[in-house]
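sanity check both lines:
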Amino acid sequence: MKDITRALENKVENEQVEKELKKYLEVYRVSLETAKRSIVKKYGGNPAALSVGVSKTLKELLANESSVNLLCRIVTSNPKEIEVDGQKKGIIYGILGDPTTTLPFTAWETEDLELERGDVVQVQNAYTTEWKGNIQINFGTRTTITKESKDALPPFVPEMQECKIKDFNDGMRNVALTARILGIERREVNISGEKKVVFSGMLGDETGKAQFSSWADFELKENDVVKISGGYIKEWRGIPQLTFDERAEVEKLQIDFPSAEDISQRTTASIEELMERGGAVDVGIEGTVIDVKSGSGLIYRCKECKRVLQDGTCRIHGEVEGAADLRAKVIIDDGSGALTAIFNKEITEQLLNKKLKECIKEKGDNVIEDELTALLTAQPIQARGNVTSDDYGLMMIAKEAEIKEVDVQNEAKRILEELGE
């Protein structure tokens, strides 16, 4: 009987529902399902709300399930306008919670739908999808949502996930970490026509550096050591970063912690680790150059948009007079994996030991590219920069790089020791 009153949004008294149900079952002798649908329809409800779903906790949900029922709390709720087939459409997205976990949701039909933070709701006929390995809950046209009393679920207390910066991965929630603030700035941004203040910058620990955004003023200052509890990790331009707001707890600590200089020196990683993390900020790698890609050497860029010209033509501005530049695009392998690294003019000049003007004077279309290929191929190299991740793999935009000098005798001795010779 509860599902009938819920489908009718509690607009009909329980006694009346019970009386109607008894009549349909004992007098009309119809099936229970037919009786339920008839009663709901009679009193102006939506019979689709009676569809039998799988009642689960959030933690039990799997990807690509249909018709699931949930009792959960609205942790966050945010309206948003998107464009579908050229038409503007309003949706609501946010986070659902129950005593087992939290999961993101999207409501695709928002007419007369009000979801406020803290509401406890009974959700029927939701469905799940998967995005980057994470379960997503969706409210569609068949979904019905009924508000319950707030004590129908115990208050949501998220379980904190202690982690280091090297553990950051897109989609992580309720993270807690201790880090040093390496830099911070206050910015005003426009969100859906409303001005908001965000504090963004860089923080670090002994495992690496990461960008952060705080949507509340915790009076953070450069060089503070803080414990942040209740943030989440979201990928931004291919690099995982920490985001938190007024719901987070931020505690300033007076403890022995690596200095900013120590953090910068220690932020090195294997390419395999970077693949698992999905990128990193200001990280060092060591490996061997296994290829110098076409498009390295002396190039010409459009003076307007800085794109590389192809046969004197910019794909945006057409045939133009280009500005000369130098770059190197190389593949670096460290034994655990490989990535593409881009070296700018300054790094390329340093590696070639010649300036751009000297390169321009040299004859032949591929002279500098051939010189870079001969210079770098099979050479051990150290590089540092930001590493991003996309469908094509990892890419480092290097801010420094140098060919690593190898002590042949010591290296041979080290290898023999590893082999047990």
